[in-house]
Amino acid sequence: MRGFLLRGEKTGQSKPCPYNQKRKKYHDKYLKLLMYFLFILFTLTGIFSFPFVSDAKLYIDITNPERRIPIAISPLAGPLGREIAQVVSADLNYTGFFILLKEEGFTELPHQDFNRENWLPAGVLCVLKGTVSLIGDELEAEARLFDVETGDNLLGKKYKAPKNLLRSLAHSIADDVYKEITGVHGVFRTQLAFITEAGGAKDINLADWDGERPRPVGLAEKMLLGPRWSREKGARALVYSAERKRRWGIYKLDLDTMKERLLFMRPGTNLAGDMSENGEILFSSSFGGNPDIYLLGQAGGIKKITNSGTIEVSPSFSPDGGRIVFVSNRGGSPQIYIMDSNGYNISRISFSGGYNTSPSWSPDGERVAFVGRYQGRNQIFTVRTDGSELLLLTSMGNNEEPAFSRDGKLIVFTSDRDGKKAVYMMRGNGEGQRRISPAGVKSYGPRWSTN
Amino acid sequence: MKKLIPLLAIIAALMLAGCSQKKISGPAPGSQSEMAGEAAKGTEEKDLAGAKEESLKETELAKLEKAEPDRPEMAETEKLSDIFFDFDSYELREDAKPVLGQLSKELSRNGEALLIEGHADERGTNEYNLALGDRRAASVKKHLAGLGVAAGSLETVSYGEEKPMCNDQTEDCWAKNRRAHFVFQRAK
């Protein structure tokens, strides 16, 4: 700390001036305080930023989206790069969270390196670019997601797939982009299971999330209902109900071995409702005299959950497995009820209309989608689990069997608005309703897988 | 004090550096400046040589191995007319009673088993209609047992809305579908 030379002080003779010394002390003290202050500031910033730290930079809070994110999906440089980008764009566009910049607005070519200057004028926040090569029948793509504001590379990953799985490869890219921006996995990597009927024979099909590439599993049933995906970790299986030899049975099909197992077939109408993470089957059956809800344990033991002389049917577990939603006509007409998984604390949640059935939980456990008879037809409603906030989502034709995507943002359902029953999907607020099952084929009972 | 300053400076620098490697998540998107994270350029650059990789595969679905239920095959004859029900009801109507009386006489005469099918019109949803059909068949079985037919010779099954008699969306057709149907059965 340099002292001040007082006027008249001769150099060489540094005699500390009392005033100087005071000032020096003041400076020292001030500096000390400043350093302490800065130290505390940085420490606190370090501590308080911790709770807000996340791996992904969250652009959208999907629980409360206020506006759509402008992004650009550039064709990947290389063969089939445009086709891949088109599938990615269609996926992201459908969610309603994004505004996709049209290619006419691009000033950067696919093979050029990303330069944020090229994208800033267009006002996009993120850009997806990449490369793709085709080696024999094998696609190898490299995709990068850039933050235009900072120029950062948010996502850089390689994807390999045989050429016939181009759509699946694109869906994986779309899901990774979606996860990076919203923080959660969406529906793009999931599979859709649904029933088709041709010539009186019914079969289950497995398709991409958007209904493309349906593959039949090989059943030929007279009567087939409600495929439900297994929730067991690492398992790929479907549970469904089929009538064979004059009796309804609950069957489980392991999709890896393609072996079917008969789980339950006591005399009565046995309908699969849901499967827990432990592999227990929640179902309804009238083997006890009238339709009630039961739980079939892994070891084959049966537990009766509801016990009444009325109809209890269509049960499914809440996402955390602690509650069950079901249909009962104990009040005189079919309505939606919720109870604890042990059968206690039954409460009714549908109060409008005289015919409410087919309930299904949202993945956050807050809402239930169901079918209500309204103005002479079946329509899809959602309601909060306390019975409030009833929303009507459909209006054309009859709409049934609603089921949510795993992020709770989309709903898949059955509609006969075009004559024959077909599988449709829509956003959670009812927007964007469109058919995703094959044209002209009677289709119903759709469910997206949970992983 | 002099030693303390550099030490504090180092600690402060470390704090700042730690801050810059973390990205702060924002609320719903606002202006661009709100969106700016504090990631230093280059620190988050993912080197593609070390990038994650995903390999997609799909195997052909093998042939399904069915689990056939162990149930006897039956020879079936359908002789009697159906009886009908009101909407969302499984109560036997008065006009059903004569048919059921005739049915019980037929059964005691020929000793065959009877399959009672319960059906519903298409207006409800499939599962609820299956339960409704189930209860309709059960009502019939109970009534026949009351008329003296051995319960062991009575089998019930519900087809809900799955096997309609007609497909028109008219009250007339719906009334025809809300039925119990009878199939006499003899072991093959």
Tell me what you see in this structure.
The complex is a heterodimer of chains A (451) and B (188). Chain A has 451 residues and is mostly beta strands. Chain A has two domains: 69-182, Rossmann fold, CATH 3.40.50; 191-448, TolB, C-terminal domain (Neuraminidase, 6 Propeller). Helices cover 15% and strands 39% of the residues of chain A. Chain A is built from four helices and 30 strands. Chain A has helices at 18-48, 81-94, 116-119, 166-182, and strands spanning 53-54, 69-73, 98-100, 126-135, 138-147, 153-162, 191-198, 201-208, 215-216, 223-229, 237-244, 247-254, 259-264, 270-275, 281-285, 292-296, 302-304, 312-317, 323-328, 335-340, 347-348, 356-361, 367-374, 377-384, 391-392, 399-404, 410-415, 422-427, 434-435, 442-448. A five-stranded mixed beta sheet of chain A has the order 3-2-4-5-6, with helices on one face. In chain A, helix 2 (81-94) packs across helix 4. The longest helix of chain A is centred in the N-terminal third of the chain and has 31 residues, at 18-48. Chain B has 188 residues and is an alpha+beta fold. Chain B has a domain at 79-187: OmpA-like domain (60s Ribosomal Protein L30, Chain: A), CATH 3.30.1330.60. Chain B has helices at residues 4-21, 32-35, 97-110, 126-146, 171-177; strands at 23-24, 52-55, 74-77, 83-84, 113-119, 154-160, 179-187. The longest helix of chain B has 21 residues, at 126-146. Chain B is elongated and about 110 Å long. Chains A and B meet through helix 1, strand 1, strand 5, strand 6 and helix 4 of A and helix 1, strand 1, strand 2, helix 4 and strand 6 of B. Strand 1 of chain A pairs antiparallel with strand 1 (23-24) of chain B.
